[in-house]
């Protein structure tokens, strides 16, 4: 695949060129929708606009939107848009337009947001040799290197998303993409308990709201009766923060009793 997809729009020197016209990126990561534009000499750019396809209509994106979407370009030739902390709702079409009088681009770039998941089926006591796949809902850009973890320790790095070995049903397996190791897949395990945090470290402003996102797994045929968050303790049983003085009214459990453990 070439590194630059030329999208020539308009005529007489008017054009917008997207570096990639289809992008697949990991949930929680940062992506640049890179593009450049040209126009005839003697013209001056007065406005630049990115638009997002939402609810069957195009919606203009402000230069600074929700502290996650930022216009990184200029009014000369760069029209890059950066989106941080990618979410599923960011998956849609985007197009850039600029004005020197009255000219609008007529093509768009597609962004697809995916997370990682280990797939490969269940194994039985008689079948320990299996092939696992680090699966995504779309094809990640730039031929990523996949990292495989066994019990949280790296066991393989490869451009292939497959991992074949003799597996123990008491071990856990997860995967990540190189340079995006903070965005692990949930662990796959037959007979173990595990919790996977989307971010190992979080920096947030005093007085703001933050989501501490995680997922968890547990052996089949078990039923979760209670799920709660607690802080480190010393010689004491863990205590649900929602009932601890000082935390009441400030935290909310947004997860479920299946696999999502998000707290805000």
From TrEMBL:
Q: One Pfam family this chain carries?
A: V-set
- What sequence ranges are listed for the domain Ig-like? 107-179
**Stretches that traverse the bilayer:** none
Q: Which domain of life is it from?
A: Eukaryota
SMART domains in the cross-refs: IG
* Name of protein: Ig-like domain-containing protein
Q: Which organism is it from?
A: Hucho hucho
């Amino acid at each position: 695949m070439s590194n630059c997809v030329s999208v020539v729009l308009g005529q007489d020197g008017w054009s917008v060129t997207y570096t990639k016209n289809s992008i697949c990126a990991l949930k929680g990561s940062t992506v640049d929708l890179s593009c450049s534009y040209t126009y005839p000499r003697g013209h001056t750019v007065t406005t630049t606009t990115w638009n997002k396809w939402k609810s069957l209509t195009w919606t203009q994106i402000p230069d600074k939107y929700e502290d996650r979407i930022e216009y990184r370009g200029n009014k000369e030739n760069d029209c890059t848009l950066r989106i941080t902390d990618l979410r599923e709702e960011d998956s849609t079409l985007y197009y850039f337009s600029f004005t020197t009088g009255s000219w609008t681009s007529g093509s768009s770039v597609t962004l697809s947001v995916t997370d990682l998941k280990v797939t490969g089926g269940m194994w039985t006591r008689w079948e320990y040799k299996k092939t696992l796949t680090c699966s995504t809902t779309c094809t990640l850009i730039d031929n990523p290197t996949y990292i495989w973890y066994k019990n949280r320790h790296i066991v393989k790095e490869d451009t292939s998303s497959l991992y074949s070995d003799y597996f123990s049903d008491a071990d856990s397996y997860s995967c990540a993409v190189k340079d995006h190791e903070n965005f692990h897949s949930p662990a796959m395990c037959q007979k173990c308990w595990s919790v996977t945090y989307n971010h190992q470290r979080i920096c947030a402003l005093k007085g703001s709201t933050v989501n501490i996102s995680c997922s968890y797994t547990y052996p089949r045929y078990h039923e979760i009766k209670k799920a709660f968050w607690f802080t480190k303790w010393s010689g004491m049983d863990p205590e649900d923060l929602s009932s601890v003085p000082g935390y009441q009214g400030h935290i909310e459990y947004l997860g479920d009793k299946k696999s999502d453990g998000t707290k805000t």
